[in-house]
Specification:
Shape: globular
Helix content: 40-55%
CATH topology of the largest domain: D-Maltodextrin-Binding Protein, domain 2
CATH superfamily of the largest domain: Periplasmic binding protein-like II
Radius of gyration: 21 Å
Number of strands: 12
Distance between the termini: 51 Å
Structural class: alpha/beta
CATH architecture of the largest domain: 3-Layer(aba) Sandwich
């Protein structure tokens, strides 16, 4: 296994095309295809399924892609750290995030900071909550973005954004109930498909249901990804509940999930950092940006208005 093979996989996953990925990586298509085939043999599983019309990740590929992205991100961080050592004016900012986070929104609200601070390199690390906490304790990340109430209370924090939840009806229910919305305390009997729990989805849903004094009827199995939750709901295995940003754009069955008071059910997210890490101009400046500029940017986006 080598980094070039991982880069090939990342590029194919991004472009959904072997030819476009080869062009992006400045390689011939046979070279790229052979490298990926060798990696698949070493990993003992197919990463992509190819037809005449499209290229898609297999479930095995979906499972491994975050790890591949993580290895390549570590490479970029290593190079930036070396640059920072040789050039003290160059700084690093490492942000860990739960897979639940809306990456598009996060990227958008940080863009003005990037433009104002070209001497700062920002690195994202998508991790499960336990891993994020360990990285924070070991000072391997500077900030974490997580669902509210899923992190150690002694850390410093500030609110980020709130996002509405959508109900994905079990396919058999979808055919019988053409509804505009669903209420937390009046859902169909279909069990709710959850993940392994490390991203914060399960705990946050339990909080939503507990606050509405409703029982969460969970499916006994677990899905590896949010996409799998959508697929299983479409197959009639169970129902799903996801934040809007994690639902595929072509999903026509997802409906808003409402609280008992008629307002949308939501997940809230916050920024976390260790108080002991503050004191440097770099970190303190970013904290001020999170507390003053980011709220205005999120409000300006108005992407998840629930009023």
């Amino acid at each position: 296994m080598n980094l070039r093979q991982l880069l090939f996989v990342q590029s194919v996953a991004e472009t959904r095309s072997f030819s476009k990925a080869a062009e992006m990586c400045h390689a011939t298509q046979p070279t790229l295809s052979n490298a990926i085939s060798q990696l698949e043999e070493e990993l003992d599983g197919k990463l992509f399924v190819r037809t005449t019309r499209k290229v898609a990740l297999t479930p095995f590929g979906e499972h491994l892609l975050p790890y591949i992205n993580g290895v390549l991100a570590h490479k970029a961080e290593l190079e930036a750290a070396a640059q920072a050592y040789h050039n003290p004016a160059h700084k690093l900012l490492r942000i860990g995030l739960s897979p639940l986070i809306d990456m598009q929104l996060l990227n958008e609200v940080l863009e003005p900071y990037r433009q104002a601070h070209p001497d700062v390199s920002i690195f994202f690390k998508e991790c499960l909550l336990d891993d994020l906490e360990q990285r924070m304790q070991k000072e391997q990340i500077d900030f974490a973005v997580v669902p509210v109430d899923t992190y150690a209370p002694e850390e410093s924090r500030c609110f980020f954004y709130e996002e509405p939840l959508y109900y994905l009806p079990q396919e058999t229910d979808a055919g019988q109930h053409k509804r505009f919305q669903y209420e937390v305390d009046a859902l169909p009997d279909a069990p709710i498909i959850l993940t392994g729990g490390g991203c914060g989805l399960n705990g946050s849903l339990e909080t939503v249901f507990r606050n509405e004094r409703a029982a969460l009827n969970s499916y006994p199995g677990q899905a590896l990804s949010y996409k799998i939750i959508e697929e299983w709901a479409a197959l009639g295995i169970g129902a799903g509940i996801l934040p809007r940003a994690k639902i595929s754009a072509d999903n026509k069955m997802a409906c808003p999930l409402m609280r008992n008071n008629g307002r949308p059910a939501t997940f809230a997210y916050e920024w976390i950092w260790r108080s002991a890490r503050s004191g440097s101009a770099n970190l303190d400046g970013f904290i001020e940006y999170l507390q003053t500029t980011v709220p205005a940017l999120v409000k300006g986006e108005n992407r998840f208005a629930t009023a």
